[in-house]
Amino acid sequence: MPMHCRGVRGATTADANTREAILKATRELLALMIRRNGIKPEDVASAIFTTTRDLNAEFPALAARQLGWFNVALMCSHELEVPNSLPRCIRVLVHWNTEKPADQIVHIYIKGASQLRPDLSEVPPVDHEELERCIRDHLSQEAKSSHP
Predict the structure, then answer these.
(1) What is the tens place of the pLDDT at every residue in 105-125?
(2) Taking all residues of the chain, what is their mean pLDDT, rounded to a whole number?
């Protein structure tokens, strides 16, 4: 089956404009995107992160580095200021090399961002403890593989 570069979209909201809130929200979003699609860092070509202008305490791309995306091209930017837009929103477009057809890609919209795409917001309830364990496991696997 041929490999294609597919776009995987996701969005979430941060609880506050703090480094911790931005990184936690972004890690949660990326972890769900990784799990639902089977994304491996070596298959990711690039990721573009955007935030609304009310989020500037940290680059959300740092969360991808924390998850082991060391060889992925990452970029951050601000969204356009649109009246009545969703506050404290983090969006990502991941360019992923995969054999999956486009109709099997799972886009993730969680927390306040679920209102942006209600048609794509049917994510099963998140067990946050289990998700944090998954993130820790992923980090430890990445650390082991990058330091043989």
Answers:
(1) 999 999 989 888 766 656 555
(2) 89
Number of structural domains, the chain? 1
Q: What is the amino acid identity at position 34? A: I
Helix axes 128-146, 19-37, angle to 10 degrees: 80
Q: Which residues are catalytic?
A: 9, 65, 76, 79, 91, 109, 117
* pLDDT tens track for 57-71: 999 999 999 999 999
What CATH number did the domain enclosing 94 receive? 3.30.1330.40
- Compute, in degrees rounded to 10, the torsion defined by CA atoms 96, 62, 33, 2: 10
Q: How far is residue 11's CA from residue 7's CA, in Å, rounded to a whole number? A: 13
Range of the domain at 119: 4-146
Q: Where are the alpha helices (DSSP H) in 47-93?
A: 61-66
Q: Which among 74, 44, 11 has a CA at the least distance from the CA of 142?
A: 44
- Contact (Cβ atoms closer than 8 angstroms) between residue 4 and residue 99: yes
